[in-house]
Amino acid sequence: MAKIKNQYATALFELSQEANTLEEDLNYAIWIRDSLNDNYIKLFLGKPGISKSVKIQLLQDAFADKVSKHIMGLLHLMIHKNREEYIVPTLATFIEIVDMYFGRIKARIVSAKPLSKAQIDTINSVLNKKTNMLVEIQTEIDPDVIGGFYILVDGKIFDNTVRTSLNNMKKNINKGSVIARVVSAKPLTKNQMDAINDMLSRKVNKDVVISAVVDPDLLGGFYIVVDGYFYDGTVRTQLKNMKKGLMRGKEVYREENLNGK
């Protein structure tokens, strides 16, 4: 299937490029793909007992006066060549080719629970820099994901799920390295992560693998759990410590005044 749909999609791309109608044809292709991506319509188009003329008439009535001639020509050709089952995949491939041409790419984020707008914006920004393209985010909820999320983009998978973190943790423990869990209110930068990694490696005198987790409920800052030790640098704890310091300061001031009297 891949070879056939790629050939048709590439041919359509070249025709659209020559006609200078790439953006228009992209919108047409999305509309036709979504319209034909219906089980009943796919069954109708793929049924051998229905004549080609009837199938072509259906497409003519639905799209002829609304889309470009070369797109209609493609649909006619695929019906005549008995390639009905390839129409939707071909249009999907054409859409991908045009998006790549204009420097756009789609990424699908699958998470255990809905991500916040801030989290999605952060992921979008990271992917834009990594791919050097304009990334369009599509989100999906999958309750079977054990926490975290994974990203599908440009044929690659970036896995940040808890299940994968646990598997990686197990592998690294077997190698003799230490896992440090860094929980922060928002994603830490690479420089921050590198600084934390370097500091922890010196303290525990082992290779440290960072497992980063974002917890929006934290009031800023972060905390670290590593090799049985707990370091708390959250804003909430800093405020508590500040409050304790103020209370001690008041007690000292009170004692000094009493002794002075």
Feature tags:
261 residues, alpha/beta, Peroxidase, domain 1, Glutaredoxin, 3 domains, 10 helices, 57% helix
Tally of discrete structural domains? 3
Q: What is the level-2 CATH architecture name of the largest domain?
A: Orthogonal Bundle
Strand content: 15-25%
The fold-level CATH name of the largest domain is: Peroxidase, domain 1
Kindly name the structural category: alpha/beta
What is the succession of H and E elements? HHHHHHEHEEEHEHEEEH
* Radius of gyration, CA atoms, in whole angstroms: 29 Å
Mean pLDDT: 79
Task: Going across the biggest sheet, name each strand in turn.
Answer: 2-1-3-4
Q: What's the number of extended β-strand segments?
A: 8
The coarse silhouette is elongated
The biggest beta sheet reads: 4 strands, mixed
End-to-end Cα distance = 94 Å
CATH superfamily of the largest domain: N-terminal domain of the delta subunit of the F1F0-ATP synthase
Question: Stretches where pLDDT falls below 50 for ≥5 residues?
Answer: none
Helix amount, in percent?
55-70%
Q: What topology does this entry show?
A:
Elements: H1 2-18, H2 22-36, H3 39-46, H4 52-63, H5 69-80, H6 87-101, E1 104-111, H7 117-131, E2 134-141, E3 149-153, E4 156-159, H8 162-174, E5 178-184, H9 190-204, E6 208-214, E7 222-226, E8 229-232, H10 235-260
Parallel strand pairs: 1-2, 5-6
Antiparallel strand pairs: 1-3, 3-4, 5-7, 7-8
In words, what does this structure look like?
The chain has helices at 2-18, 22-36, 39-46, 52-63, 69-80, 87-101, 117-131, 162-174, 190-204, 235-260; strands spanning 104-111, 134-141, 149-153, 156-159, 178-184, 208-214, 222-226, 229-232. The protein is an alpha/beta fold and 261 residues long. The strands form two sheets. It has a four-stranded mixed beta sheet, with helices on both faces. Strands 6-5-7-8 form a four-stranded mixed beta sheet. 17% of the residues are buried. Helix 7 links the parallel strand 1 and strand 2. It is built from ten helices and eight strands. Helix content is 57%, strand content 18%. Helix 1 crosses helix 6, helix 2 packs antiparallel against helix 6 and helix 4 (52-63) runs antiparallel to helix 5 (69-80). The protein folds into three domains: 2-101, N-terminal domain of the delta subunit of the F1F0-ATP synthase (Peroxidase, domain 1); 104-159, 3-Layer(aba) Sandwich (Glutaredoxin); 162-238, Glutaredoxin (3-Layer(aba) Sandwich), CATH 3.40.30.
